[in-house]
Amino acid sequence: MNSPISVSELSRDIKNTIERNFSYVFIKGEISNFKNHSSGHFYFSLKDSKSQISAVMWNSRVKDLIFIPEDGMNVLIKGRITLYETRGSYQIDVFEILPSGVGELQIAFEKLKSKLYDEGLFADRFKKPLPLYPERIALITSETGAAFHDFVKVTENRYPLVRILLIPALMQGANSAVSICDAIKKANSSEFKSEIIVITRGGGAIEDLWTFNEEKVARAIFNSKIPVVSAIGHEVDFTISDFTADKRAPTPSAAAEMIFPDAYDLKLRLNVTENSLKRQIYYRINKLKNELNSIERNYYFKRPTDLINEFRMNLDTILRDIKSVTGRKIRNVKNNIETNGKLLNSLNPENVLKRGFAIIRSEDKIITQSRQLKTKDEIQIRFSDGQSEATIK
Amino acid sequence: MAKKKVIEDTFGSSYKKLEVILAQLETEIEDHSLEEIIEKYQEAINLLKVCRKKLEEAELKIEKLSTEEDD
């Protein structure tokens, strides 16, 4: 128990203890003594007003940096603590450096923005359209955040037809980027088959929203097969994720308004549709009715009695014509008969006989000339009042 | 069978069908017989009912993806 241990053994123990307990640290501080070594590794100190820690960033990780650190920069660092046994000193093995001060953040933001822009990640041709009437959406947000509450409230009022799959994720802090990327992956692979992914969080300081300016988050959004709507912070907050998302909404509430149609409008539209349908069917039926009516109105179909009456009238006319024609004819005949009767009367031999003429017959022939008679011929003389016989001398 | 289909129809698909029928009635009305038009009209009225019912009865459903669902 009292036997001494070697320096190496102690160092080993300390190393194990430290490295086990500080396998992941997230630290904010200011960079000093920054050295960009020819090997490509970065060596520097991270300090605040009271303390400082040595830090090393190996060249394999340096290539992922979106900016070159400088002395005096305020940064956030993700890494782990390692013990360098040879010198008995500990240091931060840096995984990632994020800008922390507003100025640094702005520089990093612009750098990443122009890098992804150059790659074409913001191009319109990659923007996927959103379905008009989504049935299922995935919501990536913090379960406890106001954004979740706001989004759900607007959705409930506006379009309660939808089913929401909540995928809880950290929306700020060191682990948020990984958490969000993971959530995007889950939304894409889930059985739920979301039609839209909404990533939302409320407003906050630029540092709080910084996750959405991280390259891996921006790329995860870009690579999502399902269209992504990003609604991060307030209207004035623009993040790189907003640029790679298919749509950006200024606030969580605005995201719900952008994605979902308003059920109230839909009801009105249904009424309009119903009216249009009725108008169409009435129009069609009326048109057919009109066609029937116009056929019915045709002279021969509309008033058969008129037609019969007309025939009757025609018949009457014909009858009248016939009557008048025959009457005239009969009158003509009568006149003729009268005229002829007079003539006949005037030619009646009886009347001539009355005037003193006589008809002489011999052997039943009427004698009109004297040479027809010879002596001793027997003749009959017809007078108006009778007949006498005589012999020619 | 037909009943089952109505239940499976979503608001979006029903509404889209409705719009298609209305467009047909508005533009192609001369091409169809009265019987076809009445059939379409009846289908549209049924779709209207489905859409209205869905809007009236809708209740927002929220499910949570549990972290254990990791695959």
Written description of the protein model:
The complex is a heterodimer of chains A (393) and B (71). Chain A has 393 residues and is an alpha/beta fold. Chain A folds into five domains: 7-100, Beta Barrel (OB fold (Dihydrolipoamide Acetyltransferase, E2P)), CATH 2.40.50; 115-261, 3-Layer(aba) Sandwich (Rossmann fold), CATH 3.40.50; 265-299; 303-346; 350-391, no CATH class. In chain A, 45% of the residues lie in helices and 22% in strands. Chain A is built from twelve helices and 14 strands. In chain A, a hairpin with a 4-residue loop joins strand 2 and strand 3 (52-57). In chain A, helix 4 runs parallel beside helix 8 and helix 5 (176-189) runs parallel beside helix 6. The mean pLDDT of chain A is 89. In chain B, 68% of the residues lie in helices and 6% in strands. Chain B has helices at residues 2-8, 11-27, 34-57; one strand at 61-64. Chain B is elongated. Chain B starts with a helix and ends in a 7-residue tail after the last strand. Mean pLDDT of chain B is 80; it is low at 1-7.
Quick structural overview:
The complex is a heterodimer of chains A (393) and B (71). Chain A is α/β, with parallel strands linked by helices.
Largest interface: A-B, 38 and 35 residues
What is the CATH third-level topology name of the largest domain in chain A? Rossmann fold
Tell me, what is the CATH class of the largest domain in chain A? Answer: Alpha Beta
> Segments of chain A where pLDDT lies below 50 for 5+ residues?
none
CATH architecture of the largest domain in chain A: 3-Layer(aba) Sandwich
Question: Which radius of gyration of chain B do the C-alpha atoms yield?
Answer: 18 Å
Q: Strands of the largest sheet of chain A, in order across it?
A: 1-2-3-5-4
Helix content of chain A: 40-55%
Distance between the termini of chain A: 224 Å
* Helical proportion of chain B, percent range: 55-70%
Secondary-structure-based class of chain B equals mainly alpha
Number of strand segments of chain A: 14
Please identify the structural class of chain A as seen in this structure: alpha/beta
Strand elements of chain B, count: 1
What's the multimeric state? Answer: heterodimer
Q: What about the largest sheet of chain A?
A: 5 strands, mixed, barrel
Rg value of chain A: 65 Å
SSE order of chain B in H/E notation? HHHE
- Number of individual domains of chain B: 1
Q: Which shape of chain A, going by the Cα principal axes?
A: rod-shaped
The main pleated sheet of chain B reads as: none
